[in-house]
């Protein structure tokens, strides 16, 4: 009888029902060397230290993907800053510390590009962290994410753990939030143009001038990058095992104007009307682009073009209109 020498790892994906967590699960569940351990928010409150400790002690976890977080747009961050900093800090502290106490050697923390200063040089490199003032509207959330990076870095330094952090650019794709007011730009545009097409509208009003440039990454690419970085032998260490970087940017390294994005969304959906730009609305920062050279040097590159990714996201939207968030 053949003996299977491949070791099966018990992998806990925290936040497996969110956009990024569910994408990681979709990729890991295809593998025969992974046994997924998943808990919904109702089953496990990640802000409860005792509950998290009991869960880890019972389940014998080998690896952790920490994708759980309280997230929201500008309005939510402005309205509930205490909730954002408290809940995210509690989730990170509970999982990272408990993973260490229970002997978990490998953990992946997922952050956000909002960790970088508001006026960081473009494209934003990993070294820009803590070199300037954060964007005020989401500062509490950003500080919690920075704390998560430093938690991982500190457990590596003091306890010899291998806890890694990845910072994604703007993400979109299946399981996104399509709320008409509280969603991010891509799901908002997909829903707006879809509903305009259904109504037979001849015009869609878009905010701003359309000139700001943004970078977008399909969530399946983000999941692939996270797994790639997790499985590298020495993702963030040199030959002397000294940390080079506490975190790694994940993105395409390619941006487009909001006007180009909007035109591509209209093409994907088949909206043939006119797009009118309301220049009385704010544009935001002129450009936000990630420097992803470090990740490229580690052997990873994205697979979804913007149009292909938008097509995939729209197909998911059409197939899940009864249950999508928002």
Automatic annotation (TrEMBL):
NADP(+) binds at residues 15-21, 110-113, 145, 168-171, 184. Belongs to the NAD(P)-dependent epimerase/dehydratase family. Fucose synthase subfamily. This is GDP-L-fucose synthase. Keywords: Isomerase, Multifunctional enzyme, NADP, Oxidoreductase. It is an enzyme of class 1 (oxidoreductase). Pathway: Nucleotide-sugar biosynthesis; GDP-L-fucose biosynthesis via de novo pathway; GDP-L-fucose from GDP-alpha-D-mannose: step 2/2. Substrate binds at residues 192, 207, 214, 283. The gene is wbcJ. Gene3D superfamilies: NAD(P)-binding Rossmann-like Domain, UDP-galactose 4-epimerase, domain 1. It comes from Thalassotalea eurytherma. Residues 11-235 form the NAD-dependent epimerase/dehydratase domain. InterPro entries: Epimerase_deHydtase (IPR001509), GDP_fucose/colitose_synth (IPR028614), NAD(P)-bd_dom_sf (IPR036291).
């Amino acid at each position: 009888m053949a003996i299977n020498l491949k070791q099966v790892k018990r992998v806990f994906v925290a936040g497996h029902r969110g956009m990024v967590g569910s994408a990681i699960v979709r990729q890991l569940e295809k593998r025969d060397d992974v046994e997924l351990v998943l808990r919904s928010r109702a089953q496990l409150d990640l802000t409860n230290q005792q509950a998290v400790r009991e869960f880890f002690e019972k389940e014998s976890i080998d690896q952790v993907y920490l994708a759980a977080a309280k997230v929201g747009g500008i309005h939510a961050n402005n309205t509930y800053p205490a909730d954002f900093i408290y809940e995210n800090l509690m989730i990170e502290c509970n999982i990272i510390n408990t993973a260490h106490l229970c002997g978990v050697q490998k953990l992946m923390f997922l952050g956000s590009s909002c960790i970088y200063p508001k006026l960081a040089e473009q494209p934003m490199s990993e070294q820009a962290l803590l070199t300037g003032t954060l964007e005020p509207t989401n500062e509490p959330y950003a500080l919690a994410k920075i704390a998560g990076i430093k938690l991982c870095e500190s457990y590596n330094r003091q306890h010899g753990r291998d806890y890694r952090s990845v910072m994604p650019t703007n993400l979109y794709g299946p399981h996104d939030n399509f709320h008409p007011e509280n969603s991010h730009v891509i799901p908002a545009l997909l829903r707006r143009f879809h509903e305009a097409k259904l109504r037979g509208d001849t015009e869609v009003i878009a905010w701003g001038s359309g000139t700001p440039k943004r970078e977008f990454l399909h969530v399946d690419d983000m999941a692939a990058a996270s797994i790639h970085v997790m499985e590298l032998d020495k993702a963030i260490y040199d030959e002397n095992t000294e940390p080079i970087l506490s975190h790694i940017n994940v993105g395409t390294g390619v941006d487009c104007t909001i006007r180009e994005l909007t035109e591509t969304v209209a093409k994907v959906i088949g909206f043939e009307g006119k797009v009118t730009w309301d220049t009385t609305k704010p544009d935001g920062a002129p450009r936000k682009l990630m420097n992803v050279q470090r990740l490229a040097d580690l052997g990873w590159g994205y697979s979804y073009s913007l149009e292909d990714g938008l097509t995939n996201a729209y197909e998911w939207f059409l197939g899940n209109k009864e249950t999508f968030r928002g």
